[in-house]
Design goal:
With 443 residues, the chain is an alpha+beta fold. It has 13 helices and eight strands. The protein folds into three domains: 115 residues, Butyryl-Coa Dehydrogenase, subunit A, domain 1, CATH 1.10.540; 109 residues, Butyryl-CoA Dehydrogenase, subunit A, domain 2, CATH 2.40.110.10; 126 residues, Butyryl-CoA Dehydrogenase, subunit A, domain 3. Strand 6 and strand 7 form a beta hairpin. Helix 7 packs across helix 10 and helix 9 runs antiparallel to helix 10. The longest helix has 29 residues. It is globular.
Length: 443
């Protein structure tokens, strides 16, 4: 399929044969070429609708279910081809813009996402507005055909690698706090946008804080209606929670989209793993369970009843996640929906990482207090302990505190499930109808 044909097919919409896996395998047989550049390959993949096949027809997708999309990613991976561009653009920005944006905005932004040309970050959380996201204070004021933005964002994943940001800012301070917010696409490479890394206790700096000082956003970069950005933000958050709970992956090895990473001109065949080393997309939890099982055997702890019980619990949680995904697919196919499933998936992910942390450290014993932060330290630690899995377990244990917080805390997920899925009454509060400017700070 040529690029022109792929573009026409995607924009006019096609459902294929009804067998997405068979369709993508046929397409790969005709189109995969390891001698292409990453940019050329991602253009083929994205314009044919295979980068983000869950997106609607006519929005660079194929309108298939999330579980079918996981099967498609697996087929791409098994073929030995590079998977879709990773990152928040594909996971969050594209579905939000496809839902709330105009056709012109879909062409402007989503095309560059599915073809890997631009990387995105999420500018939602603030130092005073985390769990209460609607309490944000970053301001955007209209100036002709532009908005001038001032404020601070925090916990911005991969902000240092992003070309654009999903920004929510307060555009009507005298409206109630949920009604005066606007969702907009902001260029990260401009004066007035400063990105500072936040070093975690793991030694890495995946997160950043972002300072916005008279940064500018064109009015035509507003997604959805002005002052109705809470609706678009909820679409972003729902996709975030569903994506975090679902896991998944692609065939690439650390391939980052966008202009900053410098990957686009590399030969695509150099960035896929050998067939024997490939991991099935969605197998992160199973791999973690296998690693901990092997670790327990090596330490002689696999006969401990408590450890065996928790290994079985880890496997069970993985199976529940898989079965929930199948259940949700069947309900959607019948035209229904399972209220709160994205939130349940997010909570299950938190349970998995906590269980993995506790189980790994129990198996390691006192050695679990050792951790390496540099390559030299890792080499020395491996030589001293003779256990190359130790660093993986301690890294996992240190990172385990993050998932129950990012993407909406566990407490927020439970509130949403209680109110929206179970029909329990809302928590008491007067802030939904009071102008934001009249609320106490963080009110």
């Amino acid at each position: 399929m040529t690029t022109a044909t792929a573009t026409a097919t995607t924009r006019t919409g096609t459902t294929g044969s009804g067998d997405p896996v068979g369709d993508v395998r046929d397409w790969l047989a005709d189109n995969w070429d390891p001698d292409l550049t990453v940019a050329e390959w991602w253009e083929r993949l994205g314009l044919a609708g295979w980068s983000a096949p869950t997106l609607p027809l006519g929005a660079y997708g194929r309108g298939i279910s999330r579980s079918d999309a996981v099967a498609v990613a697996k087929a791409i991976h098994e073929h030995g081809a590079l998977g879709a561009p990773a990152g928040l653009g594909l996971l969050l920005a594209a579905p939000t813009i496809a839902t709330h944006g105009t056709p012109e905005q879909v062409d402007r932004y989503v095309r560059d996402i599915v073809t890997g040309q631009k990387a995105w970050c999420q500018l939602f959380s603030e130092p005073g507005a985390g769990s209460d996201l609607a309490g944000l204070t970053t301001r955007a004021e209209r100036d002709g055909d532009e908005w001038i933005v001032n404020g601070q964002k925090v916990w911005t994943s991969l902000g240092h690698m992003a070309d654009l940001g999903m920004l929510i800012a307060r555009t009507a301070p005298d409206a109630p706090k949920h009604q005066g917010i606007t969702w907009m696409a902001i260029e990260m490479h401009q004066p007035g946008v400063e990105v500072r890394p936040l070093v975690e206790m793991t030694g890495h700096a995946m997160f950043n804080e972002v300072f916005l000082t008279d940064a500018r956003v064109p009015h035509d970069a507003v997604i959805g209606d002005v002052n109705n950005g809470w609706a678009a933000a909820n679409t972003t958050l729902q996709n975030e929670r569903a994506g975090l709970g679902a896991g998944g992956g692609g065939g690439g090895v650390g391939v980052v989209p966008g202009t900053v990473a410098g990957q686009l001109e590399r030969r695509v065949g150099d960035l896929v793993s050998p067939k024997a080393a490939r991991q099935r997309p969605g197998a992160v939890v199973r791999q973690r369970g296998s690693m901990l099982r092997d670790l327990a055997r090596g330490a002689g702890a696999d006969t401990d009843p408590g450890i065996r019980q928790d290994l079985a619990r880890l496997y069970t949680l993985d199976e529940l996640g898989r079965l929930n995904a199948m259940r949700a697919k069947d309900v959607r196919a019948a035209g229904g929906d399972i209220a709160g499933m994205a939130n349940i998936s997010k909570l299950m992910m938190s349970d998995v990482v906590r269980l993995s942390r506790d189980l790994g450290l129990r198996i390691l014993g006192p050695a679990g207090t050792l951790h390496a932060y540099t390559d030299a330290q890792r080499t020395a630690l491996d030589e001293a302990t003779g256990n190359p899995l130790l660093g993986l377990v301690t890294m996992q244990a240190l990172y385990a505190q993050a998932p129950p917080i990012y993407g909406g805390t566990d407490q927020i997920q439970r509130n949403i499930i209680g109110e929206r899925a179970l029909g329990l009454p809302r928590e008491p509060g007067h802030d939904r109808n009071v102008p934001f400017s009249e609320l106490p700070k963080n009110g």
